[in-house]
Design brief:
The protein is of the alpha/beta class and 500 residues long. It contains 18 helices and twelve strands. The chain has a domain of 253 residues: Alpha-Beta Barrel (TIM Barrel). Helices cover 39% and strands 11% of the residues. α1 links the parallel β1 and β2. α11 crosses α12.
Length: 500
């Protein structure tokens, strides 16, 4: 935390090696935690853990729920260990691509395995534990209903029968009786997810590793929370989005990014005492040790675009009572371990809010060597300690990919000047890692792709770009010995390793 120099690695769990085509919460996650501890790291940063769907490429930033976990993360090996599956269930696992997630093929394998585990639950195993889990998670009943109704009627929910669209009590009761078994299935899968996550987090914490989780501000229109709480959003009378989210033209897109999420009705949120945000924050604090607020500036002002717009160009900034929200959250939770994602268009009011609540922001070295050199905020000599520095994020190219394919001659020359030398191309990623580690930033986070020196083919996401995002998978070695040794040395050299 603030005042203590730390470092960590950014790696989404779906990227982990696994015989099942996608990283999960099984043995490889525990092995990665061990590698982090052995190299002196204190943080494992991940992307959102929430429920994803095939229609949006399984993007973790387009979730069907603010609370529900993604069942594709559930480890079949742990299901066997915990008695939910027989070992014979894994005798016919097909071959999967080693370097990419084939989500369709993964679903074909994993969903029947999860169904077998559910069948064992129906025989009586774990009934009381699941009942307790349901009682402790008030969001679960709405999510289960939403999932069952989506499968039955399709989407969006605004096109469902009016009595279900508007959540009339009699209609919801009838659905609960009609779809009792499917509703139990959804609750059971969430129980499995959060049980495996709880065990993994406990293990990581015991190894001195803390999780940095990611909490996107917005939710898609077709999500459990918007259906369950339409009054919290700017919707029309027929429940379609009146105003939607995005960002204006920026580094990533000349026409901005039209996210299309319905925006909050902040006047209503104020009247409720921000209850929904309090519940969401409490839920995330059960999962993570620190929370990165994605698109933090949306808590100060949001870029609102007309609901039927095709691009984000014709939007406007609308003020948001972020100070009041943060006051409420800090009163409720005391020391709130937030990281503000303050990239993109950042104005004075955003900086003032961050300063008022002493929130660390983000510094990305790939942004440091452009036209504002040597005065830019992303250059290490301009940092203040209360920040988190990254070589790049999940939305950036890798360092090697950037240097070889995106950086201009001017940016490369600025980098050479800053380093005071002209290193070999194959060493560029280590030079950037060194800049991050040596900086005054309290925390340095390095994507695993940059530790391995991988090129643009290892990029996780291209915002507003083509299909094929969120699919990268790490090699089986994760951290080869030379890489682990070099990381350990840098972590110790720059005072970021935990004291023994």
């Amino acid at each position: 935390m603030k005042g203590i120099r730390t470092s960590g690695v950014l790696l989404h769990p779906t990227c982990l090696p696994s015989p099942f085509g996608i990283g999960d919460m099984g043995p490889e996650a525990y092995r990665f935690a061990d590698l982090l501890a052995e190299t002196g790291q204190q943080y494992w940063q991940i992307l959102p853990v929430t429920f994803t769907d095939a229609d949006h490429g399984h993007s973790p930033y387009h979730s069907l729920s603010a609370f529900a976990g993604d069942p594709l993360w559930i480890s079949p090996q742990l299901l066997i260990k915990d008695g939910w599956l027989e070992s014979s269930a894994l005798t016919d696992v097909p071959e999967f691509p080693a370097d990419r997630v084939d989500f369709s093929k993964v679903r074909t394998l994993k969903l029947p395995l999860l169904e077998k585990a559910f069948e064992r639950f129906l025989t009586g195993k774990g009934k009381e534990a699941v009942r307790h889990f349901i009682r402790e998670n008030g969001w679960l009943s709405d999510f289960a209903l939403f999932r069952v109704l989506t499968r039955h009627y399709g989407k969006p929910w605004s096109h469902w029968p009016v009595d279900l669209r508007d959540r009339r009590a009699g209609a919801l009761q009838a659905v609960g009786e009609r779809f009792s078994i499917p509703l139990q299935r959804e609750a059971f899968l969430q129980y499995l997810f959060f049980q495996q996550w709880k065990d993994l987090r406990r293990y990581c914490n015991d190894q001195g590793i803390q999780f940095i989780g990611d909490m996107p501000i917005y939710l898609p229109f077709h999500s459990a929370e918007v259906w369950a709480n339409p009054y919290l959003y700017k919707l029309t009378q027929d429940r379609s989005p009146l105003r939607v989210s995005g960002v204006p033209p920026d580094y990533f897109s000349e026409t901005g990014q039209l996210w299309g999420h319905p925006v909050y009705d902040w006047e209503v949120l104020v009247k409720t005492g921000f209850d929904w945000w309090v519940q969401r924050t409490a839920h995330n604090l059960k999962l993570f040790d620190r929370i990165r607020i994605d698109h933090f500036r949306g808590w100060v002002a949001c870029w609102e675009v007309p609901g039927q717009a095709q691009t984000a160009v014709n939007g406007e900034w609308v003020p948001v009572p972020g100070d009041r929200l943060l006051d409420t959250l800090f009163r409720r939770f005391g020391c709130l371990p937030l990281i503000a994602e303050d990239l993109g268009t950042i104005t004075a009011d955003v900086r003032e809010t961050m300063a008022r609540f002493d929130l660390p922001g983000m510094k990305v070295l790939l942004f440091a060597f452009g036209d504002d050199y040597p005065y830019g905020a992303f250059l290490p000599h301009n940092y203040r300690p209360n920040c988190v520095v990254y070589t790049g994020t999940h939305d950036n190219n890798t360092v090697q990919g950037w240097f070889s394919s995106e950086a201009t001659d001017q940016e490369r020359n600025h980098l050479y000047g800053y380093l005071g030398k002209r290193p070999k191309t194959r060493e560029i990623h280590w030079e950037m890692i060194r800049l991050a580690m040596a900086s005054v930033a309290d925390t340095a986070i390095i994507p695993l792709q940059d530790l391995l020196g991988l090129d643009e083919h290892a990029r996780m996401n291209s915002p507003a770009g083509p299909e094929g995002n969120w699919q990268w998978r790490a090699p089986e070695t994760l951290l080869p010995e030379p890489v682990a040794g070099r990381l350990t040395e840098m972590t110790r050299t720059y005072g970021r390793a935990p004291e023994k």
